[in-house]
Design brief:
This protein is α/β, with parallel strands linked by helices and about 250 residues long. It has nine helices and six strands, in the order βαβαβαβαβααβααα. It has a six-stranded parallel beta sheet, with helices on both faces. Helix 3 runs parallel beside helix 4. The radius of gyration is 17 Å and the shape is globular. The chain binds nicotinamide-adenine-dinucleotide. The site of nicotinamide-adenine-dinucleotide has 33 residues, from helix 1, strand 2, helix 4 and helix 7.
């Protein structure tokens, strides 16, 4: 699945799943712009890529704000060229019983997890339209397949991202640009480790009795970003160790 000659932007690429995706896309030959609020994290990802012989740049970008996205993209254009692969991965989580969710927290969740992908996609789409080729992969969540207690704000934001992905997939279908989703289900990352869940104990309730790795998640993203996936759009590849069989 060669991505040589492609330029990818991975949002939230400074940690966990985003780092795994950036490293994998670079291994497949793409040049990667690693966007994150956390500059050290983004640079750490770039260091890994460069150590493997790949090419990447680290950028501090708040992926939920218009001006930093524009600035970030201007630098990508100047140093790497037009973007043909976008992984909308940056996200935040939260664990709050419904009655305790504040309006501010609700708004922040929607801004980072839903408005962010909208803003980044709208900024980058002209590159893909000009090339008549593009791959957009949105990292949703297995929680939208099941619901999750204490996460109404988070699940609503990721459910919105699913609706966004399906609508955009149809709108862009004739233009050589695909839009697909990967909902992670229990992938060991800093976000999962910081959650109130006991990761190893909970894993015992799952069919494979272990959490997934970022490399396993990134493999699905790499497929959806590849030429091979050209006839796949509006779809979901669930990377969750065999949970939620039968749900969409
Ligand atoms: N780990 C899992 O099992 C799991 C499950 C379901 C969904 N997800 C989703 O996968 C994605 C990655 O999660 P992760 O587990 O790797 O988390 P993580 O916390 O390890 O990484 C998230 C990264 O996103 C960055 N980020 C957050 N807000 C940002 C913003 N506004 N602009 C730029 N960067 C920003 C953070 O700085 C961080 O580096 C998230 O969207 C998350 O909701 C993860």
């Amino acid at each position: 699945m060669s991505l040589v000659g492609k330029v990818a932007v991975v949002t939230g690429g400074g940690s966990g799943i985003g780092r795994g995706c950036a490293v994998r896309l670079a291994k497949d030959g793409a040049t990667v712009a690693v966007w994150d609020l956390n500059g050290e994290g983004a640079q750490g990802t770039v260091d890994l890529i460069v150590a493997n012989g790949g090419k990447a740049i680290a950028q501090v970008v708040d992926c939920a704000k218009t001006a930093p996205i524009k600035e970030g993209l201007d630098r990508v254009h100047a140093e790497l060229g037009p973007v043909s692969i976008l992984v909308n991965n940056a996200g935040m989580t939260g664990f709050d019983l419904f009655q305790t969710i504040t309006e501010d927290h609700w708004d922040r969740m929607m801004t980072v997890n839903l408005k962010g992908p909208f803003l980044v996609t709208q900024a980058i789409l002209p590159d893909m339209r000009a090339a008549k080729w593009g791959r957009i992969v949105n990292i949703t969540s297995s929680s939208i397949q099941t619901g999750a207690p204490g996460m109404a704000h988070y699940v609503a934001s990721k459910g919105g991202l699913m609706g966004f992905s399906k609508a955009l997939a149809i709108e862009l279908a004739e233009e050589g640009i695909t839009v697909n989703m990967v909902p992670p289900g229990f992938i060991r990352t800093p976000m999962l480790e910081a959650s109130p869940v006991d990761v190893d104990a909970y894993a015992q309730t799952m069919p494979m009795k272990r959490p997934g790795t970022v490399e396993e998640l990134a493999a699905a993203v790499a497929y959806l970003a590849s030429e091979d996936a050209g006839y796949v759009t509006g779809q979901t590849i669930s990377v969750n160790g065999g949970r939620y069989l039968g749900s969409a």
